[in-house]
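Thread: "does anyone have the structure for this chain?"

Original post by V.I.:
We have the sequence but no experimental structure in hand. Need at least a predicted one for the grant figures.
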Amino acid sequence: MSVQIFEAARLEAQKRLDEARPHKERNRLGQFATPPSLARAIMEETARMLPSRSKVRVLDPAFGTGAFYTATLEALGQARLEGVRGVEVDDEVVRVARSLWSHLPLELTHGDFSRLELPHFEAPRADLVVCNPPYVRHHHLSKEDKARLRQEVIDRTGVVLSGLSGFYAYFLLLADAWWAADGLGVWLLPGEYLEVNYGRAVKRYLSTRTTIVRVHRFDPDDCQFDGVLVSSTVLWIRKSPPSARHKVRFTSGNDISAPEHDFRVPQRKLDPDEKWTRHFTQVEVVDDKVPRLGDLFTIRRGMATGANPFFILKRQEALEKGLPSECLTPVLPSPRHLKVDCVEGDADGHPVLDEPLVLVDCRQSPEVVESKWPALWAYFEQGAAQGLPERYLCSRREPWYTQERRDPPPLVCTYMGRSKDGKAFRFIRNRSQALATNAYLMLYPKGLLAVRLQEDPGWIDVVWEHLSQLDAASMLNQGRAYGGGLRKMEPKELRQVPVPWFETQTEKKKG
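Reply from O.Q.:
Generated one for you, tokens below.
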């Protein structure tokens, strides 16, 4: 019977399993089956990297119902498989998989791969490890599991993973003990490890302990998994130290066999402390002497109130409630509701918008509020009845209804956005006295820029125009990409964006 017939039965069984479990539960457990077309494309490419006609021992530490097993059978043929071992933690999935593949010599272990007893030192290891590990975010791992996994990785590899690492990172490093020397590994991973700080340990392991054959990144605008906003990558590595001349192939696009971009980078030049996403494009290397945004601005995340629906009101609504104007601070609406890129201010400093918003902000003691502003005190009592004083941020403030002290920023940048014409982030000129929430990054001039603005305050508008015209690639290269075209920019990442025009403009001013 052909593999395609069994694959049809597997897909039907997978559909029933997915429909039986809410998306929220599958998200928590990281249970997202590999699409068959994706598994097939990955294994066809993998087959080209293996010695022709050689027998192969295969390990899949997160077997599921066998998406990669089907693809492996199609790409290599059953005759080349010396042995196949799968590991699956979910008892219902194991039951289905055993029923599907009972006619083939598959060793399927029911258990948690991270808890399996290590193979005897004389036991043969896998020549090929292929895996789509569970995408379980760190906050879904218990403190006890994190401690156990962290120690297991240290004991087996000496690598110390960050506590922010997802389950997939532990899977990758724990597989080291099951993997034969010079063996090939292929991993379907979220792309975050390439660019976030907590991915440094993983990149250090990859760049020093393995030969990285290829890293392929799918277009972040297209999700490979339904309902999961994750930028997916495929990683091919060999369990051998890299040669001095070895070059890693960085490819991108939605077709693994015919990538849109294909670059080769010497592995010795891969710095674990840098973002590897820049190797998927030919981004011009900027001289260290070129100014960065962090040289011109103090960049801080916008204000976090801890309860926006309570603390942020329409200005008219707040006045109708009788809240005192001296406890109402202008605040910008969220980026999706702010349709202009230049916010003008009225005589009182409030944004000139259809429905200006205010932040309820009071630093007076409860006794003063109760006696001086009865309406405000009644409003705070409503918040207390809702349990706001016990919320994380509010509970760390005294009194609980006070807000952070911030000055109105002359410029803000959106913190998140989706790529439109290559631009995912907006720079907004703030001519009002409004503050910004944590949906924005707030920019405060410093250094030479602050000096220049003392001489010519209007020059901030020239700066804003330049920022609005920043090369999209230079922004995206510093930010992070997620599935569905979503981009995110942290303050420290925005600080690294080069602004060579500032140096030029300063020289013109001197002239």
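V.I.: this helps a lot. Residues 3-20 form the longest helix (18 residues).
O.Q.: and The chain has two domains: 3-280, 293-361+403-510.
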